[in-house]
Amino acid sequence: MSKNAFELRLSLEQETLLTIKKRSEEKEEANHREQQQQQQQQHHHHHHQSAHNDDGDDDNDDQSCLFRNSIP
């Protein structure tokens, strides 16, 4: 592998890790809010999916999923 490609991959992975970290923090916050909501309304089941994906950057969501799957 050329040094350039290696560095590019490295920075990509770092970015991805940061993104994943940020997302998991967001998810924890969302989960916390959700739990509070669920106590009020038990029957709302698919609420979290639409709320999580409807943040205006769907392509970003897809990308971080792809990266997450490709990291060994």
From TrEMBL:
Biased composition (Basic and acidic residues): 22-35
Region described as Disordered: spans on this chain: 20-72
Protein's UniProt name: Uncharacterized protein
The organism of origin for this protein: Adineta ricciae (Rotifer)
